[in-house]
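#onboarding

Welcome to the new folks! Below is a worked example of what a typical request in this channel looks like: someone posts a single protein sequence, and someone else replies with the predicted structure as tokens. Don't worry about understanding the tokens yet, we'll cover that in week two.

Example request:
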Amino acid sequence: MKEFWEKRYAAEEYAYGKAPNTFLRTELEHLEPGHALFPAEGEGRNAVYAAQLGWSVEAFDYSNAARQKALRLAKDSQVNLQYQVASIESFPFERKEYDLIALFFVHLPPTLRQQLHTACASALRPGGTLLLEAFHKEQLPLQSGGPKQETLLFSLEDLEADFAALSLGQISRQRVILEEGPYHHGPAETVRIRATKHQ
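Example response:
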């Protein structure tokens, strides 16, 4: 899997574009900038956008090519990112210091997905926000992006269980039109979450 992502991100073109995700952009309008974490951030479009709004941003991905392109995008946008090459298993979530954690199209096998979601919930500061958008299981027959294995896709029930420790302000299934580079393009079925950690 690492080889797959290294190859995809090695291309000159940004696989998912340089513009931020629509849901992220809308949600950040209502949040005061603080310390944010973007796990499995890929080429950096969302992390860079948050940094442009004044957030102190950490990000990680296990792809070296992704990190290089994210740092290039940050430089071109005149912002700074703290971007590590790390896996879900190796990243030190236990610091528990984030005002925002943003998970966008992070598709993992169920056990690793649960591990990531539990770690993210724990790493939020009290009052912190978690944002997530990813492909719903009904995305499987569509050609607008995402993995072609149902076990890597999301249901609302799975997400409610994964984030039971948080207060779910929004959890919904959406039919959207993606325009996020060559690999996210067209009608799609997604899930969206906005959750907060109890004070």
